[in-house]
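Internal ticket #5521
Category: modeling
Description: The requester needs a full-assembly model to guide mutagenesis choices. All entity lines are attached below as received. Residue total reported by intake: 693.
Assigned to: D.W.
Attached entities:
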Amino acid sequence: MFNKILITGLLFSLASIAQADVMTDADEIVAKANLASYYAGMDGRSEVRMIINDSQGRQQRRQFTVLRRDVEDGGDQQFLVVFSQPSDVRNTVFLVNKHMDRDDDRWLYLPGLDLVKRISAGDKRTSFVGAHYFYEDVSGRRPSDDTHELVETTDEFYVLKHVPIDAQTAEFASYITWIDRETLLPMKIEYENAAADVYRRVEVLTVEMFDGHPTVTSSRVSDIASGGSTDMQFRYIKYDVGLPEQVFTERSLRNPPSEWLDRPK
Amino acid sequence: MKRLRLTAPLLLALALPGIASAQDDMWDDEEWGDEQEASRWSGFIEAGFGTRFNRDPLLSNRNTLEELRWRVESDWQPGRLAISLKGDVAYDGISDSLEADFRDLTAAFTIGSSLDVKLGRQVQTWGTGDLVFLNDLFPKDFQSFFSGRDDEYLKAPGNALRLTRFSPFVNVDFVWTPEFAPDIYLTGERFSFFSPLEGGNVAPQPPLSAIEPGSSLSNGELALRIFKNVDGREYAVYLYDGFFKQPTALTEDLQPTFAPMTSVGASARQALGRGLINIETSVYLSRDDRNGSNPLLPNDQLRLLVGYEWEARANLTVGLQYYLETTLDYGALIANSPFPEYEPDEYRHVITNRLTYRAGRDKHTWSLFTFFSPSDRDFYLRPAYSYRHDDHWSIATGASLFGGDKAHTFFSQLQDASNAYLRIRYNY
């Protein structure tokens, strides 16, 4: 145990040293932040829960397990999301094959009908299962969808401004990210409308180390315009579990793979 | 039985506050443990009411839905088995009876690494159509579908053995239903239906009960699907051996029954442009009437479906389908039919349209599903709205609107069944 901490600590400080060189290229920072946020390890598993707070003070809950496999670092990915709560979505399964060069392939399994429903490519900036998070917040926005500008480098953060290349693809006019210089994780994102008002904010609340990867374990998205927010927490995180490609097929929709979904011992 | 009508809502009212308060402390860190528990119980309690816009002169009850339903679900994993249970107890005011059924009562396990076995009572679905079925010959409950129950109830459970073999080359699904599981068809109890013998709608008393094939194993159903996903393009080939799922045949003494049928089909589904295209075809072979000359038995059919679905704008999905049902040996059918005027057209065309709009982070869902047949000149509209108040309470309302020019066509015969419904559900 002591050794593991020591080694992890050593690696972490080495990583810090390596990154102490200040980056100045916005595209490079974004590419590295994208890898840190969405591509840690070659694969990973996590349990996730969300509390959705609407503007009237009502709460809803979602709980699910996510399996992720990278086909290529920074490139195509596969996701399997198995819901356990609330009861009306229990055993609903969501399968995504994320592609860089074309629209993602998405399937939803509805257990009540035993229906494997294919979902057409859609606006990814719509609610993810009723939360204030968007699909794109969960699976990542392609860096090539925006232009990036390094606005400021503070002791702690790279502050970048991003503008969508095709304004039709997003509801924002621009967004600002505060990227931690050490972990390269975006710690805060603020979305601005055409009037340059911040109407939506994503904040990372805690970061912990798992298998050598700094990992977000809680975050919050606030819909500033309506007053609602969603908190998301991650637990039982493990990287490089060796997920085979076959886990991400129709088989897992009807018959979720408990071998990979069960909590690591 | 009548007493239940009063006591059940009372029980519901007493039980709910207790259930609700137990789940309010959502942010308790200990709750992460829940998920991995060996078993848990969940389900819902639902009250549903549906009534016709106009009375059906053949039926004494104007309503299509009067029910209080209690759903219980659980699953657990003893060893390498996965046991799943999903059962309903419902008081049905239309038939004034208490009904209980399992939608799922199965044991599943894997042999080796790639053969999945699921045995027991289960709901099954395959094929690419949206509310149009070609190669999906698993039982459907049209009474539920027309009366305003949740869409889930369109699929009826059957007792079956399902074997699924996965391999990198091709996947194979095999379903054996030892005892024929027909559709839940129109019987005259909840809805009247067209009878060629009478030349109009009938609502027989006692309700229609078609003669089912004997329960010998040779009268079971076999369904096979061979399927493969090649880089997002989904291909499947289907084979079925059993019976027409609706009582469209007559016995020698003119009792409704199910004709033996074998079908072969294929489907493909893939992304095209910003949407999804699906193509499916199937040939139904009426085994005892291959040349179409027996007026008591349905003819062979060739079915074809082409569909396209896309997100027209954020949260608005549009689906269009064209469906063609061709009756083969049509000349022989008409030449031998005692009621040629009531036989289906040689080519029955149906166009469907689905619009779905979600709003308020999916709290509100509006949808409209339209069936329209230019050849039968009839239609079926299904507008619906659902509101998910929170993780417990939801409301669904909608209507079934039927119309057409002729008395005997599929949707037109249901004109007097046009109804609106409201359901309130508590999930626990």
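Resolution: model delivered.
Comment from assignee: The first helix of chain A runs from residue 2 to 20.
Ticket closed.
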